[in-house]
């Protein structure tokens, strides 16, 4: 069994939706023994994180030098600000980075070359694409390492994200495509649950009953898939009795050409990721 690398002090710059999700996973796992320093622009957001164990929370509105202070003692720095804010943030923190500090991007569409162009070609940079189930330790995170990142650097960052779920290592040119599946994927699932709930309400169930049926069906199906180790197509066949009610419903769904719908949806997401990378 391979030993999990010990995590060094971590800084999360911009602990918003995604940065906050990673923080939640880290805290819940108890793996961040070196401590975590997080920054947010507002005092209100900073206060909301201040009582988490092992977390130092800085409000930039009260301490404008907070980002620099956060990275000065960190071995891993997660950049979680909005993509348009990344270049200015990198220019702000580069003088304070210690040699060997690993910089991890959480910013959609911002390339490793953008980081290296500001931080320097010798700074280890790893681009990540996690998803929000990190909050409950069930994320899927894609990782792509820059040229300056060693195998040990990648292993350390992988260990960080494994506190929040599963990790997939890919070349950088696959990160945007990965984001259309696992990055955006939770939204697709939530949309399906919304629509199944709406269908239940249309059949006479009240909102609470409809939500219970739809949500627990998805949760239970996912748990069955996880626990059984079976292919989803095989599990679907087991539920679909010949000439039964489920078979009739599946036929309607297949008539809708879901393969094409999901292909077009993920293609649209990929096109937007490329627009973001181009600054659009």
Notes on the structure:
- The protein is an alpha/beta fold and 280 residues long.
- The chain folds into 2 domains: 10-175, Rossmann fold; 185-276, ProC C-terminal domain-like fold (Orthogonal Bundle), CATH 1.10.3730.
- It has 12 helices and 8 strands.
- It has helices at residues 17-29, 43-49, 66-72, 86-93, 112-119, 151-162, 175-183, 185-202, 207-228, 232-239, 245-255, 258-277; strands at residues 10-13, 36-40, 55-59, 76-79, 102-105, 125-129, 139-145, 165-169.
- Helix 5 links the parallel strand 5 (102-105) and strand 6 (125-129).
- The chain is elongated and about 70 Å long.
- It starts with 9 loop residues before the first strand and ends with a helix.
- It is an enzyme of class 1 (oxidoreductase).
- NADP(+) binds at residues 13-18.
- Radius of gyration equals 21 Å
Total number of helices: 12
Overall pLDDT: 92
Task: Please summarize the sheet with the most strands.
Answer: 8 strands, mixed
Terminal Cα span: 46 Å
Q: Quote the beta fraction.
A: 5-15%
Helix content: 40-55%
Detail the topology: elements first, then pairings:
Layout: E1 10-13, H1 17-29, E2 36-40, H2 43-49, E3 55-59, H3 66-72, E4 76-79, H4 86-93, E5 102-105, H5 112-119, E6 125-129, E7 139-145, H6 151-162, E8 165-169, H7 175-183, H8 185-202, H9 207-228, H10 232-239, H11 245-255, H12 258-277
Parallel strand pairs: 1-2, 1-4, 2-3, 4-5, 5-6, 7-8
Antiparallel strand pairs: 6-7
Helix pairs in contact: 4-5, 7-12, 8-9
């Amino acid at each position: 069994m391979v030993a999990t690398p010990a995590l060094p002090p971590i800084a999360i710059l911009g602990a918003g939706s995604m940065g906050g999700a990673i923080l939640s996973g880290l805290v819940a796992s108890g793996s961040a023994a070196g401590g975590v320093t997080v920054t947010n622009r507002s005092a209100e957001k900073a206060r909301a994180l201040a009582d988490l164990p092992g977390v130092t929370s800085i409000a930039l509105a009260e301490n404008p030098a907070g980002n620099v202070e956060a990275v000065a003692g960190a071995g891993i720095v997660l950049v979680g600000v909005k993509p348009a804010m990344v270049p200015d943030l990198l220019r702000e923190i580069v003088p304070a980075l210690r040699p060997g500090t690993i910089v991890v991007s959480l910013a959609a569409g911002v390339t490793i070359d953008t980081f290296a162009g500001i931080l320097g070609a010798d700074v280890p940079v790893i681009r990540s694409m996690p998803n929000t189930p990190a909050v409950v330790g069930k994320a899927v995170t894609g990782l792509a390492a820059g040229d300056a990142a060693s195998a040990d650097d990648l292993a350390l960052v992988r260990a960080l994200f494994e506190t929040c779920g599963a990790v997939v290592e890919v070349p950088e040119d696959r990160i945007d495509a990965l984001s259309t599946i696992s990055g955006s994927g939770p939204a697709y699932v939530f949309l399906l649950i919304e629509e199944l709930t709406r269908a239940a309400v249309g059949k006479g169930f009240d909102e609470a009953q409809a939500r219970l049926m739809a949500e627990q069906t998805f949760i239970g199906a996912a748990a069955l898939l996880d626990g059984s180790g079976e292919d989803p197509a095989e599990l679907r066949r087991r539920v679909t009795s010949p000439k039964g009610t489920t078979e009739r419903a599946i036929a309607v769904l297949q008539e809708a050409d879901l393969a094409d719908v999901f292909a077009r949806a993920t293609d649209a997401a990929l096109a937007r990721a490329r627009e973001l990378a181009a600054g659009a």
